[in-house]
Amino acid sequence: MNDGYNSVLASIESSSPTPGGGAVAALALSHGIALARMVAALTVGRDKWASGHASAESFLAESHTWTADALDMAQADCDAFDAVMAAYRLPKGEEKEIVLRKDAIRSANFGAAKSPLNIAKFCLKVMDSLSPLASDGNANAITDAGSAAYMVLAATNAAALNVRINLGSLGDASSDFESEINQILESVTNSHEKIIKIVENRM
């Protein structure tokens, strides 16, 4: 198991700015999804947890691409940051070059904020899907359901930071971005608290 992880962690801890916090948020999300899918897989087909079969089967069907989707978001975040760096490296000697560079930077900054916002939106979708698993899933895996919720919460908070760091470069769009990420974070946090209460009651 460690072989693949070592490669990813080596990439993160290098002097390269990517993958950074946004990408790691998406990686954390992918772990939460994988844990939740494990809980669902441990519920389906076990007579003792028949009351949870429907929700587990539904989750497995809905989430079958989610882990890969989260990994794609991690790459997209790296690409978004690389686009910002590339925009700042554009020539700025002539007036036309200055205008083109300014437009490229504005567009790239928008993408750098949009990427973690998309991650946070996905976090909300995932968190909202965890409650039935926590309520009716295999109780022997209840702490895994709780751990999944904590991973998604961490991913959301990390994504929110990476949205906020870009707000100053978004001009008039900054207020919309800030409002949306605040709403997402509040919703995810509220859902997480409810899920953890369920988990603790079933332990």
Automatic annotation (TrEMBL):
Would you say which domain of life the source belongs to? Archaea
Q: Name the top EC class.
A: transferase
Q: Give the Gene Ontology MF terms in alphabetical order.
A: glutamate formimidoyltransferase activity
Q: Which gene encodes it?
A: FTCD
Alphabetic keyword roster? Transferase
The species this protein belongs to is: uncultured marine group II/III euryarchaeote KM3_98_B01
Q: Which InterPro entries match?
A: Cyclodeamin/CycHdrlase, Formintransfe-cycloase-like_sf
EC numbers for this chain = 2.1.2.5
List residues of the Cyclodeaminase/cyclohydrolase domain: 7-174
Q: What is this protein called?
A: Formiminotransferase-cyclodeaminase (FTCD)
Q: Pfam families per the record?
A: FTCD_C
Record flagged with keyword Transferase: yes
Please name the SUPFAM superfamilies in this protein's record.
Methenyltetrahydrofolate cyclohydrolase-like
Cross-referenced Gene3D superfamilies: Formiminotetrahydrofolate cyclodeaminase monomer, up-and-down helical bundle
